[in-house]
Specification:
Elements (H helix, E strand, L loop, with lengths): L3 E5 H20 L9 E5 L2 E5 L2 H8 L4 H17 L3 H20 L4 H10 L1 H11 L7 H6 L4 H14 L4 E6 L5 E6 L2 E7 L7 E14 L6 H10 L2 E9 L1 H12 L4 E7 L4 H14 L21 E9 L2 E7 L3 H17 L4 H15 L2 E6 L8 H18 L1 E3 L3 H12 L5 H24 L17 E3 H19 L3 E5 L1
Parallel strand pairs: 4-12, 7-8, 8-9
Antiparallel strand pairs: 1-15, 2-3, 5-12, 6-9, 6-11, 7-10, 10-11, 13-14
Helix pairs in contact: 1-2, 1-4, 3-17, 4-16, 4-17, 5-16, 6-15, 12-13, 15-16
């Protein structure tokens, strides 16, 4: 029988602090340009973890508290894509302040409610620190990228523009290459053998349906064959007799045709097909629109100046959609981006769709670099910061904007013990990044103006607020634990 022990109240709080302190210290050491990596063994090899989330994955153990902390940081990193080290140090500072408040007699649930009541005041103070993200250089400096990488990323962002999208991808060759697409782009798989990669002046059939029979469209297809026009058919699926008909005509050389299905599946495939229809002016074949293949006329086909395919990436140059319809569709996608602002994967999918439909799409292909093994991850975090800043503005970096917010919070405190404790929890979390950066740069707390000689740095406001909220929420979850039964 496994022996167990019970921890409660002060003993539990001390055990929590003891278990989490090494992970918080290790993550804090990775912050800033002078940050250090954590070495760990993987089999017979020694590896290093240089980001906060990787450090926490390697340092934390299997206790319930450590798992809770690790899962919280990993989940936040998947959502916001940047700032996991800052999250860890904010959490550690908030946890310390909350434990001190409870030891002084503040009831845990009352502390949680008091912190929640300060949310509107925090909103005001974050808004007061917010600047418009027109100049991206302070954001890229804060990402601590090497000069060549920062310059490449800046070029890509400039080409894409504020409404565009920069996509990072990997390539086998060393170095960084910029690929710019003009027109509508999408990830679609060719379903015919020996598919054409290049066609000029194409017409499109777009169907949010699985096409298995072309009987009703044979006259349309024959017309394309006789006129030597090029045809692109995009659908959720193309199979059976329909696929065989297209394959025979393509192989015989009587029809220039490309048959495509979205790489995405389910609702996302439907979205891509609807975007394609709007971009090219095609009438979408689907149950929702009431348009069937049988009733499709040549005048309801879409058009584009050219068709290019590279792997699964297709580009339609000079698509023939109506500007008013495209603008309306872009507005709908902007609404999706706002609705999904806290859901990273859904938000980024909508951002990619917006960029592709607006024709502002840039791909930055990053090759392996032995001297910078974490290069792709660094660029991913930098891009996440830029996107967040463009969506919600930026504030003074190196923790300085956060410290000013802490000063305003302290100025508003009254005599109520619980309110004062709640403000201390938030203020210690807000000040923690600056303290750690200062320490990692080799200064102690007496060097108040340690960052005065640094170039201008910036942090995204929305990202910084998300880090604070997540760190404090996680710390309060931990301190409200009343009892733990542990296996020895």
């Amino acid at each position: 029988m496994t022996a167990t022990r019970t921890l409660a109240q002060e003993a539990l709080r001390l055990d929590v602090a003891r278990r989490l302190a090494p992970a918080v210290r290790a993550a804090s050491a990775s912050m800033g340009p002078n940050g250090r990596a954590t070495l760990y063994a993987s089999g017979s090899r020694v590896r290093h973890a240089s980001t906060g989330v990787d450090v926490i994955r390697r340092v934390t153990g299997d206790s319930v508290i450590e798992k809770l902390f690790r899962e919280g940081v990993v989940s936040a990193d998947q959502d916001i894509r940047d700032g996991s080290a800052r999250l860890a140090v904010m959490f550690g500072a908030a946890l310390e302040a909350a434990q001190a408040a409870i030891a002084a007699g503040v009831y845990p649930t009352a502390l949680v409610r008091a912190v929640d009541r300060l949310a509107p005041e925090l909103d005001i103070q974050f808004a007061a620190e917010t600047l418009v993200a027109d100049d991206l250089r302070p954001l890229l400096r804060a990402a601590d990228l090497q000069e060549d990488v920062s310059a490449a990323l800046a070029r890509a962002l400039e080409r894409a523009g504020p409404e565009g999208h920069v996509e990072l991808s990997e390539r086998p060759e060393p170095g960084v290459e910029l690929q710019e697409a003009s027109g509508f782009t999408a990830e679609m798989e060719a379903v015919l053998t020996g598919s054409l990669d290049h066609m000029d002046r194409v017409y499109l059939i777009v169907a949010n349906d699985i096409i298995s029979d072309f009987d009703t469209l044979v006259p349309v297809i024959e017309g394309f064959a006789k006129s030597d026009k090029s045809l692109v058919i995009a659908a959720r699926g193309i199979e059976g007799a329909a696929r065989q008909l297209l394959e025979r005509n393509r192989t015989a050389g009587v029809l220039r045709v490309a048959a495509l299905v979205p790489c995405d599946k389910g609702p996302r495939a439907a979205q891509i097909l609807a975007d394609l229809a709007v971009a090219t002016g095609a009438t979408l074949v689907s149950e929702e629109t009431g348009q069937s293949l049988a009733g499709l006329s040549p005048g309801q086909l879409g058009s584009a100046g050219g068709y290019r395919r590279r792997g699964n990436r297709i580009t339609l140059t000079d698509p023939g959609g109506e500007p008013e319809a495209i603008a309306l569709r872009l507005g709908e996608i902007e609404g999706e981006i706002e609705r999904h602002r806290y859901l990273a994967l859904d938000r980024e999918h909508a951002q990619r769709r917006h960029a592709r439909l607006s024709g502002r799409w840039v791909e930055l292909m990053v090759g392996p670099d032995r001297t910078r093994p974490d290069l792709h991850e660094q660029m991913t975090r930098a891009l996440a910061s830029v996107r967040s800043a463009r969506a919600g503005g930026w504030m003074s970096g190196a923790g300085q904007g956060l410290c000013r917010i802490a000063e305003h919070l302290e100025a508003g405190q009254g005599a109520d013990q619980t309110d004062r404790a709640a403000r201390r929890v938030l203020c210690q979390a807000l000040r923690a990044p600056l303290k750690v950066l200062r320490r990692n740069a080799g200064f102690d707390d007496s060097h108040v103006n340690w960052a005065s000689g640094l170039p201008e740095l910036a942090d995204p406001v929305r990202l910084s607020r998300s880090l604070l909220d997540t760190a404090v929420s996680l710390a309060l979850q931990v301190v409200t634990l009343e009892i733990a039964i542990l296996r020895n």
